[in-house]
Amino acid sequence: MSSGDAMGSLQEGGYRSRYGIDKLREGNYPVWKWNCQALLEEAEVWDTVNGTDPRPVTVGRIEPTEEELRTWDAKDRKARRIIGFTVVDELQGPVREALSAREAWDELEKLHAPNDRQRQFSLVHQLHACKLQSGTPLKDHEREFSAIVESLRST
């Protein structure tokens, strides 16, 4: 893989990550979330991100082993790397500042998936204004329409 591939390349209207999915940018959070979660599941680190596999802690007098801590920390770093490589540079602040992959994921969701009335109104307005332009391929129109519907579904 060339260094240009690793940084993402401009294809079909958006930056693609080294994993072949569009990077998170303004306006594509629902699609990015689905794709990134699939990548994290494929890499077997999603449980670290969603909290079902928390970092081992001392319970009573039983302390986690160094190996358990190293294994969990490696999974968390891998998850953070995947998340970071699938976000455009301008939006990576929460990933860089997070202490864990879960913290990065939650902060990105908080910033890019607002569930307020204004967002719903804006999306409904976009949906009503979504019209097929002459000379535009139907596939592009369907992609735009589907993205708006998916955003509405997630609010």
Write up what this structure looks like:
It is built from 8 helices and 2 strands. The protein has 155 residues and is mainly α. The chain folds into 2 domains: 3-113, no CATH class; 114-155. The protein has a two-stranded antiparallel ribbon with strand order 1-2. β1 (10-11) and β2 (14-15) form a beta hairpin. α7 runs antiparallel to α8. The longest helix is centred in the middle third of the chain and has 20 residues, at 66-85.
In brief:
This protein is mainly α. Helices cover 59% and strands 3% of the residues. A hairpin with a 2-residue loop joins β1 (10-11) and β2.
Helices, strands, pairings?
Layout: H1 3-7, E1 10-11, E2 14-15, H2 29-42, H3 46-50, H4 66-85, H5 93-97, H6 101-112, H7 117-129, H8 138-154
Antiparallel strand pairs: 1-2
Helix pairs in contact: 4-6, 7-8
Characteristics:
single chain, 155 residues, mainly alpha, two-stranded antiparallel sheet, elongated, disordered N terminus
